[in-house]
Design goal:
22 strands; eight-stranded mixed sheet; membrane; GTP-binding; AAA+_ATPase; cell membrane; Rossmann fold; FlhF__GTPase_dom; alpha/beta; about 45% helix; about 20% strand; about 725 residues
Length: about 725
């Protein structure tokens, strides 16, 4: 019989350990508080019968010595049975009350894991992806299209392909095709040349072969060259290549067909070094057989990449050959992703020039994921777990090294995702890299990037249509918050422009925003003065301003505080919003008011009451004054809801400012700039349901702490860790 002791911080934690180790039918022998928490002693179900037998053996002597007229069970046995029953009921009640962890259901993870491994992707890549599975997809059906779309996005961000073939071919250069024997280098040389000939003709292209090992290699390339109408040259000695490339300097495109060598051939290093010694720069393109095993491809890439780096430059990119012979593309694409190679072309047959196509990530991933059932060579999860467990210290160090590289790649992908999805993140990253620079360098960067021409162009490129006016200093701070642009949906953009770089008066700032920035509507942190309101009315610019409950306004001939008008407002809608990371049901009301009895402005008072959607308890009341035009009512309702969700912006700026104070000495303006950028990005990331946010949120949230719930504050702390780690790993690399 095996009796086990469990120690937890509380009863639920201890009971969870019992359930995980012994199952739901375990018998609890004792349950008591100790200095470190709660101690539970339990035994498995299969050992309970042994425990009862021992109890009966203990009771047997007492029964033997008792008078023959006594037939009732021994008191000790009764007590044992009673305790067993009581403990079982206690365990079952704890199991029923213990909440299940908020993670993706095993079905979702299991199906996604099996789908990717069946496609040929490595267990390491699958693990990385599942670690970042968003909370929004935790409970969806396994065939939910959002799950497949997320999987494709995760893979697509890892797969680098050629962006512009025309530019690459027009620039030309010397390209050497390298790789193992039988991978198809000679045929690929002809197909690659044909891509150039079809665009620019054959006058400026030349083919070169260094293959003097394989019988007929020269003649095969000459046949292809004759069909394409291009020159072909053969190199027989090591010193001839440099002379030949010098003579071919007038050719825009030179393609070198090299000798095929196994990745385990000791001559690989010499061959690659020979290419590196040529007078003209040689771009090495590695050919990978898509039908090869993943371990083989891994070895090929490692060997040729190491030899290429030793020769002075890494591999320029790669091509996938024999795609038509590959039952699964996952392994080949996995190797390309992990080694961060750029994939140029995909080859799928022997015909020249037909059987070559430009590598396109969506099409390749669709093909890779469209596999059928698993094969005998697809391991189950248990076997993969055992295989990945290090068995020696050397393997452990290699695994740690790979994990560090994977972490760097993951952080890089997240930064790239943010930069593609949100205008201004590239500037935030650039500013972050100046944190530890001397003050003079920090100030020089600010002068270059925050000058009016640069900022006006950046706001135009971001398609900003609105402007957020911070209206002074955040509470508890002695600095003025920067101006921030708003997009067409009312979302704040991380493109902060410090207030002191604007004109001195609000009317001049409004003129600049309208004439040069294209800002058509405005959000104020406090009610603008009469001159600004007049200018807004004359230009018919919608606006909204946060106001206090004590603010006095005119309504129906009376001057009253806003707090006294709540019951008079007309309900005009309900909406579920995210406020400080929590879902709230918001009821919106409105009331026409004026700021002065004779004021010509017809304003609208907006009152938003937020409630907990489950309990119905009221959580807060918010008030705005704004444009009163009836034609804008529908738009303004959505506008008010969005600004309510972003009401926390100034507080987030203050939090970011305080966090930045613990880092390297910062120029005051750079610190303000970073605080505003970080706050805007954290808020936008929390509110957006676009693909970039869904993909980036899990990683950023995990950087802030595993158990922290999603909120702007959590994402703000995660962004600080992301930028710090990304900068450090990039510098180390």
């Amino acid at each position: 019989m095996s009796v086990m002791r469990f120690l937890g911080a509380n009863s639920r934690e201890a009971m969870r350990q019992v359930r995980d180790a012994l199952g739901d039918d375990a018998l609890i022998l004792s349950n008591r508080r100790v200095d470190d928490g709660v101690e539970v002693v339990a035994v498995a179900e299969e050992a309970q019968s042994s425990l009862v037998e021992q109890a009966e053996d203990v009771a047997a002597p007492a029964q033997a010595s008792a008078p023959s007229v006594e037939t009732s069970p021994a008191p000790g046995q009764d007590r044992l049975y009673a305790e067993m029953q009581a403990m079982r009921e206690l365990l079952m009640s704890h199991i029923a009350e213990t909440p299940r962890p908020r993670s993706a259901s095993p079905g979702v993870r299991g199906v996604l894991r099996q789908r990717l491994i069946t496609a040929g992707f490595s267990a390491r890549l699958v693990r990385e992806m599942l670690e970042t599975l968003p909370d929004e997809l935790a409970d969806v059906d396994a065939d939910d299209p959002r799950l497949l779309a997320w999987s494709r996005r995760q893979l697509e961000t890892r797969l680098a392909v050629l962006d512009d073939e025309a530019t690459m071919l027009e620039e030309g250069g010397v390209f050497a095709l390298v790789g193992p024997t039988g991978v198809g280098k000679t045929t690929t040389t002809a197909k690659f040349a044909a891509r150039y000939v079809m665009r620019f003709g054959g006058d400026d292209v030349a083919l070169v072969t260094t293959d003097d090992y394989r019988i007929g290699a020269h003649e095969q390339l000459r046949i292809y060259a004759r069909l394409l109408g291009v020159d072909v040259h053969a190199v027989h000695h090591e010193d001839d290549l440099e002379d030949l490339l010098s003579r071919l300097e007038g050719k825009r495109m030179v393609i070198v067909d090299t000798v095929g060598m196994s990745q385990r051939d000791q001559r690989v290093t010499g061959q690659i070094a020979r290419l590196g010694g040529a007078g003209r720069p040689v771009r090495r393109l590695l050919l990978l057989n898509a039908a090869s095993h993943g371990d083989t491809l891994e070895e090929v890439v490692e060997t040729y990449q190491r030899a290429s780096r030793d020769a002075g430059a890494p591999l320029y990119g790669c091509l996938l050959t024999k795609v038509d012979e590959a039952p699964r593309l996952g392994a080949a694409l996995d190797v390309v992703m992990r080694h961060r190679l750029r994939l140029y072309y995909v080859l799928h047959g022997q015909r020249v020039p037909e059987d070559i196509r430009l590598a396109e990530a969506p099409a390749l991933l669709d093909e890779a994921l469209a596999v059928g059932q698993g094969s005998p060579f697809t391991f189950d999860e248990g076997v993969l777990t055992e295989m990945l467990r290090p068995t020696a210290s050397g393997q452990g160090l290699q695994a740690l090294s790979r994990d560090l590289l994977a972490q760097r790649d993951q952080l890089t992908r997240v930064m790239e995702t943010l930069q593609r999805g949100v205008p201004g993140v590239a500037w935030l990253d650039a500013a972050w890299h100046r944190r530890e620079s001397p003050r003079a360098i920090q100030q020089a960067w600010l002068e270059e990037h925050l000058a009016p021409p640069s900022m006006i162009k950046a706001w135009h490129d971001a398609e900003a249509t609105g402007l957020f006016w911070p209206g002074g200093k955040p509470r508890g701070m002695d600095w003025a918050a920067p101006m921030l642009p708003l997009d067409a949906n009312g979302d704040v953009l991380p493109l902060a422009w410090p207030l002191h770089r604007w004109p001195p008066s609000d009317t001049q700032r409004l003129t600049l925003a309208r004439r040069h920035l294209g800002s058509h509507w405005h959000v104020f942190a406090r009610v603008p003065d009469a001159d600004v309101r007049k200018q807004l009315r004359e230009t018919d610019s919608p606006w909204l301003a946060r106001t206090r409950v004590q603010q006095r306004v005119w309504h129906a001939g009376e001057r009253l505080a806003i707090g006294e008008l709540v019951d008079l407002a007309e309900p005009c809608g309900q909406h579920t919003c995210r406020l400080r990371g929590r879902a709230r049901r918001v009821t919106l009301s409105r009331l026409p008011v004026a700021l002065a009895e004779t004021d010509a402005d017809s304003l609208q008072l907006w009152i938003a009451m937020s409630h907990d959607p489950e309990s119905g308890r009221r959580r807060g009341v918010y008030h705005w004054l704004g444009h009163g035009g009836d034609a804008l009512d529908i738009d303004m309702r959505a506008f008010v809801y969005r600004q309510l969700e972003q009401d926390d912006l100034l507080r987030l700026m203050r939090t970011a400012w305080q966090q930045l104070g613990a880092s390297a000495p910062l120029d005051c303006e750079l610190r303000i700039y970073l605080a505003a950028q970080l706050a805007a990005l954290a808020l936008r990331m929390d509110l957006s349901e676009d693909g970039w946010a869904v993909d980036a949120r899990p990683v950023v949230r995990r950087l802030a702490g595993e158990r922290k719930r999603r909120s702007p504050d959590t994402l703000l702390h995660g962004l600080l860790h992301l930028l710090t780690a990304h900068a450090a790993l990039s510098q180390a690399a």
